C-alpha cells in the first residue's frame, strides 16, 4: 500500500467520511491516499454501511498475525518471476480483488479471480488456490462453480489428469456476450406485458420503451464484442522478459 498501512486515526477519518456521505475519492483526497486504498479498506471491512474503524483496525491486526503464522520465516521474501516485488504483487492482488467486489462479485469469488489473474499461466489447481488464499478446498469449489456460471473461469485437465481452473483472453468475450444476452428474457417478458396492459397505456409504454432500449444496447454490445474480439489476442511488439529478468 503506497505510503504504508492505514493508521487507526486514518480509519477513524474514513468512518467519519462515510457517515457524512462522502465518496471514496473525496475521503482518499483528504487522507492523501489512493482511492483504491480507501475502497479496498471499506469493502473488506463491512462495506460503506457496516464499516467501523475499531473493528477494521482489529481485523487488520488479526490478518497480519494469521499471515505470519501461516508462512514460515522468510517465505514472504521468496523470489518472484520477472524480478517482481512480492509485497507489491500481494497488495496489487488485493486491489484487483476489491475492483471485482465493487463490480458485484462476492468476496471469495473475487479473491479467486484476482489470484488467477495475477499468475502468468492464468491457471491453478484447487489445491494451489487453497494454499495461496489460505482457505478450504470447499470454498474454492464453491467459488469456481459461481465463476463458471458467469463464464469468468473455465476448467481443463492437464497432462496429469488434474483439474485446473483457467482465465484466458476469450473469457472476456464470452462473458460480454452472456451479459448482453441476459437481457433477452426481460425484453421478451416486457413485450408480453404490453399486450396484457393495453398498447398505448402508460404502463405498457414504459415496458415497451425499456424493452426497446435494452434490445438496442444488447445488440450494440454484441456487435462491439465481435468487432473487438481480436484486441484480446493482440500482442505488443516489445520482447517479453524472461522470468528471471528484473523489470525496470
Quickly list its features.
248 residues, mainly alpha, 3-stranded antiparallel beta sheet, 12 helices
Alpha-carbon Rg, integer: 22 Å
What are the segments in which pLDDT stays under 50 over at least 5 consecutive residues? 72-78
Strand order of the largest sheet: 1-3-2
Globally, the shape reads globular
Instruction: Please describe the biggest sheet, giving its number of strands, its sense, and whether it closes into a barrel.
Output: 3 strands, antiparallel
Secondary structure: helix percent: 55-70%
Mean of all residue-level pLDDT scores: 83
Helix count equals 12
Strand content: under 5%
Distance from first to last alpha carbon: 20 Å
Number of strands: 3
- The helix-and-strand class reads mainly alpha
Give helix and strand order, one letter per element, not per position. Answer: HHHHHHHEHHEEHHH
Amino acid at each position: 500500500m503506497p505510503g504504508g498501512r492505514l493508521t487507526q486515526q486514518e480509519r477513524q477519518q474514513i468512518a467519519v467520511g462515510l457517515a457524512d456521505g462522502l465518496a471514496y475519492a473525496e475521503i482518499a483526497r483528504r487522507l492523501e491516499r489512493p482511492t483504491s486504498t480507501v475502497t479496498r479498506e471499506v469493502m473488506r471491512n463491512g462495506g460503506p454501511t457496516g464499516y467501523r474503524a475499531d473493528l477494521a483496525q482489529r481485523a487488520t491486526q488479526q490478518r497480519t498475525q494469521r499471515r505470519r503464522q501461516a508462512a514460515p520465516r522468510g517465505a514472504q521474501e521468496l523470489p518472484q518471476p520477472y524480478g517482481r516485488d512480492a509485497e507489491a504483487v500481494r497488495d496489487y492482488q488485493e486491489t484487483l480483488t476489491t475492483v471485482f467486489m465493487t463490480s458485484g462479485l462476492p468476496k471469495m469469488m473475487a479473491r479467486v479471480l484476482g489470484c488467477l489473474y495475477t499468475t502468468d499461466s492464468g491457471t491453478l489447481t484447487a489445491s494451489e488456490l487453497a494454499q495461496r488464499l489460505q482457505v478450504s478446498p470447499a470454498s474454492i469449489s464453491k467459488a469456481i462453480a459461481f465463476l463458471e456460471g458467469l463464464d469468468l473461469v473455465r476448467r481443463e485437465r492437464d497432462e496429469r489428469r488434474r483439474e485446473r481452473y483457467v482465465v484466458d483472453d476469450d473469457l472476456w468475450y464470452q462473458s460480454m456476450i452472456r451479459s448482453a444476452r441476459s437481457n433477452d428474457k426481460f425484453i421478451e417478458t416486457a413485450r408480453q406485458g404490453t399486450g396484457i396492459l393495453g398498447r398505448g397505456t402508460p404502463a405498457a409504454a414504459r415496458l415497451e420503451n425499456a424493452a426497446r432500449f435494452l434490445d438496442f444496447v444488447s445488440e450494440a454490445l454484441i456487435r462491439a464484442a465481435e468487432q473487438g474480439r481480436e484486441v484480446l489476442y493482440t500482442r505488443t511488439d516489445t520482447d517479453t522478459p524472461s522470468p528471471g529478468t528484473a523489470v525496470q
